[in-house]
Design goal:
This protein has 227 residues and is α/β, with parallel strands linked by helices. It is built from seven helices and ten strands. It has helices at 3-27, 40-47, 67-72, 103-115, 131-139, 170-179, 195-200, and strands at 61-63, 91-96, 100-101, 120-125, 128-129, 143-148, 164-167, 189-190, 207-214, 218-226. The strands form three sheets. It has a four-stranded mixed sheet with strand order 1-2-4-6. Strands 7-9-10-8 form a four-stranded mixed sheet. Strand 9 (207-214) and strand 10 form a beta hairpin. Residues 8-111 form the RNA polymerase Rpb5 N-terminal domain. Its main location: nucleus. Residues 154-226 form the RNA polymerase subunit H/Rpb5 C-terminal domain. It comes from Myriangium duriaei CBS 260.36.
Length: 227
């Protein structure tokens, strides 16, 4: 690889890395806002080995959920279940340098997550991914999101035409439905495959608040049920 190609690859991975950090920050993980805007020079110091070569393994990291994120993923207590389980936990982001990704790679990654007591993982890869591997990821006993690098080169939520999406906590969802005397199935819907749903890691059955700009009202909110 020429020096120019190395510089382009470093710049490309810098954009990918920033988007991942911004995504986890927006989801509600414990990250400093400064981490989401790392400079290219600081990224070079982090990502390159002593010889100056980019090493993707140096980019992998762990993130913990904030109390606010944990709250949004904890059901309301009931008499039958006074201490409900929190359905979120530590996440590991793995930057793969493999030239191809198959079922075996994701199973090894799932084992890595289990052995370290991690709740979920993000597998970032520049390689082609087989359809069977993607199906396998969906059926593993631990949550794994597979992210192609090209999907992270631009943070779609930073575009001015993409409105703000906010995940409602369980009690906020309940209050919304009671206020408008609705069932969740009567709400407009957003698919789990929607790019913003994927960015925020939304789960089926959750409700997201969408805040849009309005020339007359300033801002207005709508709600979507995740399916």
């Amino acid at each position: 690889m020429s020096d120019e190609e190395s510089r382009r690859e470093l710049s490309r991975m810098w954009r990918v890395y920033k988007t991942i950090k911004q995504m986890l920050y927006d989801r509600g993980y414990k990250l400093d806002e400064d981490e989401t805007n790392i400079s290219l020079e600081d990224f070079r110091a982090l990502a390159c080995d002593p010889s100056g070569m980019l090493s993707k393994t140096r980019l992998s990291f762990r993130a913990e959920p904030t109390p606010a994120l944990s709250h949004r993923y904890t059901s309301q207590p009931t008499k039958a279940n006074p201490i409900p389980e929190t359905n979120i936990g530590p996440v590991w982001v793995e930057f793969s340098s493999d030239s191809a990704v198959g079922i075996k790679h994701l199973r090894v990654f799932a084992q890595f997550l289990n052995e370290r007591g991690l709740y979920s993982g993000l597998f970032v890869t520049g390689a082609s991914i087989t359809s069977s591997a993607l199906k396998s990821a969906a059926n593993l006993p631990i949550t794994i999101e597979v992210w192609p690098e090209q999907d992270l080169l631009v943070n779609i939520t930073r575009h001015e035409l993409v409105p703000k999406h906010i995940l409602l906590a369980p009690e906020e969802k309940k209050a919304l439905l009671e206020r408008y005397r609705l069932k969740e199935t009567q709400l407009p819907r957003i698919r789990i495959e929607d790019p913003v749903s994927k960015y925020l890691g939304l789960k089926r059955g959750q409700v997201v608040k969408i805040i849009r700009k309005s020339e007359t009202a300033g801002r207005y909110a709508s709600y979507r049920w995740v399916i």
